[in-house]
Known about the structure:
The structure holds two protein chains of two kinds.
Chain A: H1 5-14, H2 21-38, H3 73-77
Chain B: H1 8-16, H2 22-40, E1 43-46, H3 48-63, E2 75-79, H4 106-113, E3 117-122, H5 156-163, E4 169-174, H6 180-186, E5 189-192, E6 212-217, H7 220-230, H8 248-251, E7 260-264, H9 274-289, E8 293-297, H10 305-320, H11 335-350, H12 364-376, H13 379-392, H14 397-421, E9 424-428, H15 444-449, H16 455-460, E10 463-471, E11 477-484, H17 489-502
Parallel strand pairs in B: 2-3, 2-4, 7-8, 7-9
Antiparallel strand pairs in B: 1-3, 4-6, 5-6, 5-10, 9-11, 10-11
Helix pairs in contact in B: 2-3, 5-6, 7-17, 10-13, 10-14, 11-12
Amino acid sequence: xxxxxxxxxxxxxxxxxxxxxxxxxxxxxxxxxxxxxxxxxxxxxxxxxxxxxxxxxxxxxxxxxxxxxxxxxxxxxxxxxxxxxxxxxxxxxxxx
Amino acid sequence: xxxxxxxxxxxxxxxxxxxxxxxxxxxxxxxxxxxxxxxxxxxxxxxxxxxxxxxxxxxxxxxxxxxxxxxxxxxxxxxxxxxxxxxxxxxxxxxxxxxxxxxxxxxxxxxxxxxxxxxxxxxxxxxxxxxxxxxxxxxxxxxxxxxxxxxxxxxxxxxxxxxxxxxxxxxxxxxxxxxxxxxxxxxxxxxxxxxxxxxxxxxxxxxxxxxxxxxxxxxxxxxxxxxxxxxxxxxxxxxxxxxxxxxxxxxxxxxxxxxxxxxxxxxxxxxxxxxxxxxxxxxxxxxxxxxxxxxxxxxxxxxxxxxxxxxxxxxxxxxxxxxxxxxxxxxxxxxxxxxxxxxxxxxxxxxxxxxxxxxxxxxxxxxxxxxxxxxxxxxxxxxxxxxxxxxxxxxxxxxxxxxxxxxxxxxxxxxxxxxxxxxxxxxxxxxxxxxxxxxxxxxxxxxxxxxxxxxxxxxxxxxxxxxxxxxxxxxxxxxxxxxxxxxxxxxxxxxxxxxxxxxxxxxxxxxxx
Lengths: 96, 513
């Protein structure tokens, strides 16, 4: 199947990417090729096969619910591109 | 022979016997790095002064008779996808260009506890996505055997620094072949452990159900030494296996009796380079001369490996890489400029001139995410985020993602069946030797298809290893791949060591150095 430019633009919003006009063109061509290739899986009979999400199928690995130190705030904020003394800063989300 | 051409095992024996000091060793590698890394460009970050200080401290401890760790004084290079406290970790991406982790990955912690000397961080494909190291946002690494060719990837710097004698041991990671393929291209040994053998805590995630950290070195013995140091259960990685770690470094030399090898019929088909096929068949004869029996096995679903992998890995990547949002760490776009652009778009929409509805415009926060990521990620990472977002999106999830997970189980089932008959599955690591720089950058799909022998190992979650088994007429290394049952690394290393006792391919070094 082929992806339209509009599909690719929609996916770029879902994936939180902003693509230039030229990138949208290239991406449409390249994704169409790759998606066309992976579609060969439709020829495999998978009736009754359980999906395998993980190589080691372990479930419910618990640890003790013990109190321990967490990363100090300053260390956690140290790599923030924009911060104040206690928070990450982002552009206004609500209202003007 | 220079110190920098010795195996890690030899160096450890010399260090223990105090025939050489750690400071001398670090100096020997620093000298080699000065001579070679201008051309090979394996390292993204080097701190020789810090390495020397650490070496001196370990030398002093040893001289005063205090206990030292198993890797005491030995330099080790780390792929720049493992967090190192206080030392930049970029994943070869612009989006993490200034990221300094507040903690060490478990593997790094274990290496420090074993008194290894961390030499530097090696170059890679951005976020480990690629097979040539050309996707690094910083520079291309070259193949020390022929600097017009790629070293492979994504652990290209990790393999190249070994081949050029710039480090005796190297940590790589393997999501679809990223240890084994560069090991094959650079003529070194590299082991992808069973999923869960090594803790992934502090490994920057690409595809969490496939990623695994592993050792790279010149010999099976060197890989055994390094795997023993990094393997084991870690409460901070709930997918790490709670199993004892064998003493690989003690047992690697025991020959295997009655060894049964399976040659994968499907690996010798169309697309396999003739010289590689000949070298692999020769390697199999070596095993036969050592008493192994060889039979054909079939992995009928392995031909779907690439298609399965390029759904599952990008799906997981698109989810894992959502964290790079320009808020918590890493690069952020110029906010003022971003807001001005958005305002201009808003005015245009209000005037009705752009064909866009006001309601379609991004909010400032969404635009911050989108622009940050557009500027911070390279083309291959964007491609995989797009692909993964698409295959996980409403309406396509079952057709692509769930379908791929089902085929994944069939691929695993093929291995389970093969391992009922044989101990190891043997074949070429790659269909072709190292290709030219730039040869495949315009054609992502052709690059993906080079992974066909390695991705099924990760999908099945089993162990795999590449060891040198020949050189092409043009002087390029050839890799032999051995794949083993889950958690059978001890015998995998023994099988590799058997081959290396009978051959000398692992001793070959590029003539340029």
